[in-house]
Amino acid sequence: MNTGTTELQWGHRIFSACVGGMARSYSQVLHLKCIMGVMKPLLVMLLLATSLQAQTVVDAARKERDRQAKVHSTIVIIEKGPESAPPASDDKSKEAPKLPEVDATALWNAKADLLRTKIKELQDQETALQLKQTEQQNLVYAPVVDPAVKDQAQTDLTQTIQDLAKVRDDLATSKSELDTMNAEGPPKKSPAQP
């Protein structure tokens, strides 16, 4: 591997410590120094421009997010057909306009999502109460324990068991409700709906 260099300078020949070096003329060395001298400021300017451009892109994105967060649509579009046009001077003109029908499938999905969230929370509560029950049982059945601590642990254990039973009942009810909803499936669209 040739890693050493030899430079020719005004008639002197300088050899590198490595055997089999490359020879460059003095003009080549000057040319490399000249190019590097010009390229260093260019590279610095390029890096600065790139970092400044990156900062402006980040700032622009942040400003756009802030702008979109502040924008609220206040336009309400109400479809009026010939059947919903109010008569000129009838009492029907005093009636409230019909509200658009709510999508039954969307309501079903929202209710199913709420039940799933409730089930997850109840499962977390059940796990926490089981851990608390185990801790309290360890205090009650410990071989050496202060009688006051043991009595308090017994009282706490009874309350925890009651809380755990209530959470399990709620969990069973929620799971049953979700299973029933899933078995029935979302409501079918009527032929009149688009």
How would you describe this protein?
The chain is mainly α and 194 residues long. The protein has two domains: 65 residues; 82 residues. It is 62% helix and 6% strand. It contains three helices and three strands, in the order βββααα. A three-stranded mixed sheet has the order 2-1-3. A hairpin with a 2-residue loop joins strand 1 and strand 2. Helix 2 packs antiparallel against helix 3. The two termini are 78 Å apart. The relative contact order is 0.06.
The biggest beta sheet, please?
3 strands, mixed
Residue windows where pLDDT falls under 50 for at least 5 positions:
none
Helix content: 55-70%
Order of helices and strands: EEEHHH
Number of helices, counting only DSSP H or I runs of 4 residues or more:
3
Count every beta strand, where a strand is a DSSP E run of 2 or more residues. Answer: 3
Q: What's the N-to-C terminus distance?
A: 78 Å
Class from helix and strand fractions: mainly alpha
Number of domains in the coordinates?
2
**Beta-strand share of residues:** 5-15%
Task: For the largest sheet, list the strands in their spatial order.
Answer: 2-1-3
**Arithmetic mean pLDDT:** 76
Short structural summary:
This protein has 194 residues and is mainly α. It has 2 domains: 65 residues; 82 residues. The protein is 62% helix and 6% strand.
Topology:
Layout: E1 5-9, E2 12-14, E3 22-24, H1 26-70, H2 104-140, H3 147-184
Parallel strand pairs: 1-3
Antiparallel strand pairs: 1-2
Helix pairs in contact: 2-3
